[in-house]
Amino acid sequence: MYIIGALLAFSVLVIVHEFGHFILAKLNGVKVEEFSLGMGPKLFGIKGKETEYTVKILPIGGYVKMLGEDGAETTDQRAFINKTPVQKLSIVAAGPIMNFIFAILMFALIASVRGYLSPVVSELEPNKPAIVAGIKPGDKIIGVNNKKILTWEDFVTEVYLSNGSALNIKLNRNDKIENVKIVPIKDVNEKKYIVGIYPTQVTNPSLVNSMKYGFIESNSLVKQTFAFLKTLFKGNVSKNDFGGPVTIIRVSGQAAKAGIISLTAFAAYLSVQLAIFNIIPFPALDGGWIFLLLIEIITGKKFDDNKVGFINYIGFAILMTLMVLVTIKDILYPIKF
């Protein structure tokens, strides 16, 4: 049941993403030939007026197939290839944008239901770094090492990434700025770095504050993700720091066990990751198309559609190979949590 719930949650993210492409394609007068959920052989499909809606055997990913997106020449004005660069850009960018919007709405929904944690100190643990450094209840944490802190999760991330190094904390105390230095210590039981601070729980937030939290939390996740990618490209991560489809389903299953709110929060988190992954300027990804279209808009020079189609084909093959390798890694070296 939990695995089914996890698969359904992931499917919703794919539908949201592809619906962005689908609706903008329709608005720009592009013929959509297929709207697919999943990959591989077709399980079943429903034929609409001009679009076939299909479900594939592998519950991972999905796509919207538009007339002329493969680069093949056609005189049909409803073909993607015959649209202006701006129209193409709006269609391609709509997928990641929809994932960001979905994440914002889900985080806002969660906030309205259970409230959220604010980076305002409510309590301090005795004999821990925070209270020793002079932090007091009511202090609002607004910065760590010259980085803005907007959510409690921002602060926790900085403590986690500190690896025990000193943190320069900027506080708002009664509308006055205070600066303190804290050296996190490792919690023996939880095996993570802590400073001994409890945040403030905001309950029954207004609709405006819930939406504001949705924006802030999504923005925080974007920053954290790019920080991880930076660490990844530097080669400072191990095989236990990332996972693929199997890990996603495992974690989603655990989130489902914890309840609908936890599953919704994880779905919102994944939605942000899906959006960021898709805007990476790599062939076959939305980001690859966005990169080419922006160059085309700026220079006014059109790329050879056949060459673009071939490059995207190669990019897709590389991505599929990568997915297989990461899946094998998930099976042989599963992440422990």
Number of helices: 9
Roughly what is the average pLDDT, rounded to an integer?
86
Tell me the β content: 15-25%
Radius of gyration: 23 Å
Shape: elongated
Low-confidence residue ranges: none
Number of strands: 10
Overall SS class = alpha+beta
Strand order of the largest sheet: 5-4-6-7
Helix/strand order = HEEHEHEEHEEEEEHHHHH
Total individual domains: 2
Percentage of residues assigned to helices = 40-55%
What is the end-to-end distance? 20 Å
Largest beta-sheet characterization: 4 strands, antiparallel
Cofactor: Zn(2+)
Protein name: Zinc metalloprotease
Family: Belongs to the peptidase M50B family.
GO biological process, one term: proteolysis
Task: Give structural notes.
- It holds the Pfam family PDZ_6.
- It is found in: Membrane.
- Keywords: Hydrolase, Membrane, Metal-binding, Metalloprotease, Protease, Transmembrane, Transmembrane helix, Zinc.
- Its EC number is 3.4.24.-.
- GO terms for molecular function: metal ion binding; metalloendopeptidase activity.
- This protein is α+β, with helices and mostly antiparallel strands.
- It folds into two domains: 1-115 and 204-337, no CATH class; 116-202, PDZ domain (Pdz3 Domain, Roll).
- The protein contains nine helices and ten strands.
- It has helices spanning 2-27, 85-114, 129-133, 152-162, 207-233, 245-258, 260-278, 286-299, 305-332, and strands spanning 32-47, 52-66, 116-124, 140-144, 147-148, 167-173, 176-182, 185-187, 192-194, 197-202.
- The protein has a four-stranded antiparallel sheet. Strands 1-2 form a two-stranded antiparallel sheet. Strands 3-10 form a two-stranded antiparallel sheet.
- Strand 8 and strand 9 (192-194) form a beta hairpin.
- Helix 1 packs antiparallel against helix 2, helix 1 packs across helix 7 (260-278) and helix 2 (85-114) packs across helix 5.
- The longest helix has 30 residues, at 85-114.
- The protein is elongated and about 75 Å long.
- The protein starts with a helix and ends in a 5-residue tail after the last helix.
- The model has no long low-confidence stretch (mean pLDDT 86).
